[in-house]
UniProtKB/TrEMBL annotation:
Any one of the GO BP annotations: aerobic respiration
Taxonomic lineage of the native organism: Eukaryota, Viridiplantae, Streptophyta, Embryophyta, Tracheophyta
PANTHER family linked to this entry: NADH DEHYDROGENASE SUBUNIT 1 (PTHR11432), NADH-UBIQUINONE OXIDOREDUCTASE CHAIN 1 (PTHR11432:SF3)
Entry protein name: Orf88
Source organism of this protein record: Justicia flava
Subcellular location: Cell membrane; Membrane
Amino acid sequence: MIMDTTEIQAIYSFSRLESLKEVYGIIWILVPIFTLVLGITLGVLVIVWLEREISAGIQQRIGPEYAGPLGIFQALSDGTKLLFKENLLPSRGDTRLFSSGPVIAVISTLLSYLVIPFSYHFLLTDLSIGVFLWIAVSSLAPVGLLMSGYGSNNKYSFLGGLRAAAQSISYEIPLTLCVLSISLRAIR
C-alpha cells in the first residue's frame, strides 16, 4: 500500500488534533479544582484579615497594617514564618511517635478528599460507600493528636493531646449522626 504525502499529512494533523483534545480535557478537569482551591484560599485570607481588624477595633488598638496595604498580607507572612520555624523535638520523648502524630492527622484529612467529586467527569474514586469511607478516614485524626501528646513524654502535653482529641471527637459525633441520617433517608 503506497500512501501519498497528503494522506500522511492528514494523519499527522488528526493525531495532533487528538492530542490537543486530550490536553483541553485535562485542563478542563483541573479548572474546577483550581477555582475551588483559589476561592477557599482567598476566603480564608479575607476572614483572617476581618477577624484581626474587628478584634483590633473591639480592643481599641491598631490592627495589622504593616504587611501590605491595610495588612492584607499578614496571614501570608504568618504562614511563611510558621514554615521556617525551628523543628523542636522533646529530649525525653519518643521522637518517632511525636513526629508521626501530625503526619497521621494530616494524611487522614487529605484522604477524605478521595470521595469528593470535583466535577461531573472527575472523581478520584467512585465508591458506593463514599460517605462511610469519609467518616471512617476522617475519624483517624484524633489518633494523631493522641500520638503527639503521648510521644512528648510530658503529662501536660498528653493532657493537651487528650483535650484536642476529645474536642475533635465531640465535633465528629454530631456530624456523623447528621450525615448518616441523611444517607439513611436517601436509601428509601
